């Protein structure tokens, strides 16, 4: 490709509203442009990268025995009503009326479509197992589209769905996909972890892993052990380490009338949040000193303070619980000189009013106010504090990492096959429910995830597998006939040998050309300048910055 013809505008300046490195670089290197919030146009360079990622994903899916289909993005609402997700999916589901007033949705994911398809097509055990996949555009009206392609409202995903006779079959299908994901991320050249994950809204039975590209720009926190292989999404780690207050323990309606709060359940009710959103409740004295903390229902209390407040003797964690039960007095929410800080999954709130005025009985309504009284730690710090207490498998403390969720493999079980009546007749003629798994991979999110790991202050550093082109040939002065001739000849020879080459044939100053070359970040640059008079060129490796002076012939051989 000749750069003078390429539909490309690089930007000198950092775009104002892009505060994540990959977002800035994708705009500056001319990979994409925003149309509206969370919706992007892929320009030629960006589309080449996306196509390469999708080609790798497609190869590995095919190798794993999955078969590609193309599913409709436009789907009737009835399918979503049948699965129950018409209500459950919430405002992320894009809904609209067609001209005949039928309600439709734009697919954020395709369990409904694929299960109804398989329900119609599969009758006998002879047709199973089967894994189908699609690579296409998905739509989610995300509340906070963020950082370019990292969280779009319209984005690209590979999604696969497995259909099996029994649990053992599902285990095998799941393992095949898990292994394929490892091969994909190995080939993409990124550092990643497969971590145990929470089931979330998709609703499934045992078993699911998220594939995380390690990066500070990620929204997920991973708890990992350096002593054993344990690695989990922090929500999952907290859940595994501590007894989780589940919805079934939420107080009954009549209790709601009781003013005041003394347990996590009370808080949940007053704040109108779900228990699993609360990571930690900390009780502070007015001087900001924490005296007690309650972590997802597990009490951890400053004994001196508690003894004073409750008048208890020989206090232990267990007896604190007992005292609470017997006296009905609050353990955590201890008195007139305290403030409460509730640490949520994402936001931090302080509960000061009401509690501060707490009397002997300690029963007061809680008012939620933004936390101005206490320094607000980063969410990661809070998770650090929470996870510092966890040792989930081998007893060693966990370390926390930030990650970008790029893939998710999930044992669904029979949630969707039951809802759609997807059954088969077994060898004995009995009717049985198909067992499902689903396997998502955000192909467009992979691009910024890779860039987060592969860039420097000058631009992108593409891994060869997904670089838009492999080699950048830069003749320094296109008015110099010798340079142009050498550049064109090398360009044609490499092209004929199957190497993807970008030739910077623009009449620009060398500084501009070099800056653009670093920004675009192709793995190898061949600079053709005045040394061509002696038959030499410069070959530069973008990743290491290593420069070699070679003859044209040597450069050609080195690249091949
Ligand atoms: P997240 O937790 O980041 O919202 P998710 O768990 O909702 O993601 P899944 O339903 O598991 O996402 O979808 C499979 C994959 O699709 C994700 O692992 C991710 O790579 C990608 N993905 C999901 N939402 C988006 C989005 N808004 N923009 C880009 N990629 C996305
Ligand atoms: Mg999501
Ligand atoms: Mg997720
Ligand atoms: Mg997920």
UniProtKB/TrEMBL annotation:
InterPro entries: aa-tRNA-synt_IIb, aa-tRNA-synth_II, aa-tRNA-synth_II/BPL/LPL, Anticodon-bd, Anticodon-bd_dom_sf, Pro-tRNA-ligase_IIa, Pro-tRNA-synth_IIa_bac-type, Pro-tRNA-Synthase_IIa_type1. Consists of three domains: the N-terminal catalytic domain, the editing domain and the C-terminal anticodon-binding domain. It catalyses: tRNA(Pro) + L-proline + ATP = L-prolyl-tRNA(Pro) + AMP + diphosphate. GO terms for molecular function: proline-tRNA ligase activity. Belongs to the class-II aminoacyl-tRNA synthetase family. ProS type 1 subfamily. PANTHER family: MITOCHONDRIAL RIBOSOME PROTEIN L39/PROLYL-TRNA LIGASE FAMILY MEMBER (PTHR42753), PROLINE--TRNA LIGASE (PTHR42753:SF2). Keywords: Aminoacyl-tRNA synthetase, ATP-binding, Cytoplasm, Ligase, Nucleotide-binding, Protein biosynthesis. Its EC number is 6.1.1.15. The keyword Zinc does not apply. It comes from the Bacteria. This is Proline--tRNA ligase. The keyword Transcription does not apply.
């Amino acid at each position: 490709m000749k750069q003078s013809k390429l539909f490309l505008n690089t930007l000198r300046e950092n775009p104002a509203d892009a505060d994540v490195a990959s977002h800035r670089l994708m705009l500056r290197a001319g990979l994409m442009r925003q149309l509206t919030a969370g919706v992007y146009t892929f320009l030629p360079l960006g589309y080449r990268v996306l196509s390469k990622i999708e080609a790798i994903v497609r190869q590995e899916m095919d190798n794993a025995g999955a078969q590609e289909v193309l599913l409709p993005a436009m789907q009737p609402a009835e399918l979503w009503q049948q699965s129950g997700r018409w209500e459950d999916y919430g405002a992320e589901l894009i809904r609209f009326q067609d001209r005949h007033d039928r309600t439709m949705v734009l697919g954020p994911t395709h369990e409904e479509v694929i299960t109804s398809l398989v329900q119609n097509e599969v009758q006998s055990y002879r047709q199973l197992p089967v894994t189908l996949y699609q690579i296409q555009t998905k739509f989610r009206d995300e509340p906070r589209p963020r950082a370019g392609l990292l969280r779009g409202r319209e984005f690209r995903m590979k999604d696969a769905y497995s259909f099996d006779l029994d649990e053992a079959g599902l285990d095998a299908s799941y393992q095949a996909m898990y292994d394929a994901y490892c091969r994909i991320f190995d080939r993409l050249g990124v550092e990643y972890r497969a971590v145990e994950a929470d089931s979330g809204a998709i609703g499934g039975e045992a078993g699911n892993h998220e594939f995380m590209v390690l990066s500070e720009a990620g929204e997920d926190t991973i708890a990992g052990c350096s002593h054993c292989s344990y690695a989990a999404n922090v929500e999952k780690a907290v859940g595994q380490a501590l007894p989780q207050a589940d919805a079934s323990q939420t107080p009954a309606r009549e209790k709601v009338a009781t003013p005041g709060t003394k347990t996590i359940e009370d808080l949940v009710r007053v704040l109108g949040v779900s228990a699993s959103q609360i990571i930690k409740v900390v009780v502070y004295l007015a001087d900001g000193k924490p005296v007690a903390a309650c972590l997802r229902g597990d009490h951890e209390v400053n004994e001196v303070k508690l003894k004073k407040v409750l008048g208890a003797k020989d206090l232990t964690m267990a007896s604190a619980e007992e005292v609470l039960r017997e006296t009905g007095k609050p353990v955590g929410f201890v008195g007139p000189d305290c403030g409460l800080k509730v640490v949520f999954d994402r936001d931090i709130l302080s509960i000061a009013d009401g509690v501060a005025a707490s009397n002997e009985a300690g029963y007061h309504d809680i008012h939620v106010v933004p936390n101005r009284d206490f320094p607000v730690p980063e969410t990661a710090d809070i998770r650090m504090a929470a996870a510092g207490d966890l040792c989930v498998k081998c007893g060693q403390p966990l370390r926390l990492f930030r990650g970008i969720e790029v893939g998710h493999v999930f044992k669904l079980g029979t949630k969707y096959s039951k809802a759609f009546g997807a059954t088969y007749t077994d060898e004995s003629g009995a009717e049985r429910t198909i067992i499902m798994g689903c396997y998502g991979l955000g192909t467009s999110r992979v691009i910024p995830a890779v860039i987060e790991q592969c860039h420097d202050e000058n631009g992108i550093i593409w891994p060869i597998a997904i670089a838009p082109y492999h080699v950048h040939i830069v003749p320094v002065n296109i008015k110099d006939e010798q340079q142009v001739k050498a550049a064109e000849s090398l360009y044609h020879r490499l092209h004929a040998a199957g190497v993807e080459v970008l030739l910077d044939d623009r009449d620009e100053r060398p500084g501009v050309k070099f800056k653009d070359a670093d920004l675009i970040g192709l793995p190898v640059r061949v600079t053709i300048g005045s040394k061509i008079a002696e038959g030499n060129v410069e070959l530069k490796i973008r990743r290491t910055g290593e420069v070699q002076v070679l003859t044209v012939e040597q450069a050609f051989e080195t690249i091949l």
